Amino acid sequence: MSKTIKCELSIASLDKAIKEIEKYLDSINDKLRQMTELLIQDGVTVANASLSSTVGDSTQGSIGFGINGSGDIVSATIYLSGKDALFIEFGAGIAYNTGAGHPKAAELGYGPGTYPSKHPPNRGINPGYWYYRENGELVRSIGTSASMPIYNASETIRNNAIMRAVEVFRS
């Protein structure tokens, strides 16, 4: 997306060139917002697909997003909310988390065996399940798979950024 602006050395011509430059800057900001919206759509689609693939006891979560464009800065956020958000993102229990876990779990201090604290004894009472109390009742849990909706969304956005920039700025 290139633009050539020609002007003469007169006040009227320079004023016209300044208005063209301002219009061009506005179009760049519009394209940045359009690119951000496309990337957020990509991320939300992947996050919702990951959320719907969650298996286990903890499945109560929802994906949300927000786009803020003020001035020259456009920002966006995708988030997972709900009482089970951390369990859905990082996994819980050992039944569904015997293989590779969330790539950021160790760095962030989350993952199977870290709830309610990071230190032992946080192992299931019996292989494959564990118990906890909810409203005074003993509940048997098989855990929750680490479906990683936010991680997967961020990877998709990162992988699609150049493609989306080319798509938007070539038009």
Describe this structure in words.
Residues 117-126 have low confidence and may be disordered. Helix 1 packs antiparallel against helix 4 (149-169). The protein is α+β, with helices and mostly antiparallel strands and 171 residues long. The protein has four helices and four strands. Strands 1-2 form a two-stranded antiparallel sheet. The protein has one domain.
Could you outline the blueprint of secondary structure elements for this entry?
Blueprint: H1 11-52, E1 62-70, E2 73-81, H2 85-90, H3 105-108, E3 130-134, E4 137-141, H4 149-169
Antiparallel strand pairs: 1-2, 3-4
Helix pairs in contact: 1-4
SSE pattern, N- to C-terminal: HEEHHEEH
Strand percentage, roughly? 15-25%
Roughly how much helix do the residues carry, as a percent range?
Answer: 40-55%
End-to-end Cα distance, whole Å, is 8 Å
* Strands, total number: 4
Q: Please state the oligomeric state of the protein chains shown.
A: single chain
Task: Round the Cα radius of gyration to an integer and report it.
Answer: 24 Å
The number of helical segments is 4
Query: How many domains in all?
Result: 1
Structural class: alpha+beta
Uncertain stretches of 5 or more adjacent residues: 117-126
Characterize the overall form: rod-shaped
Characteristics:
single chain; 171 residues; alpha+beta; two-stranded antiparallel sheet; two-stranded antiparallel ribbon
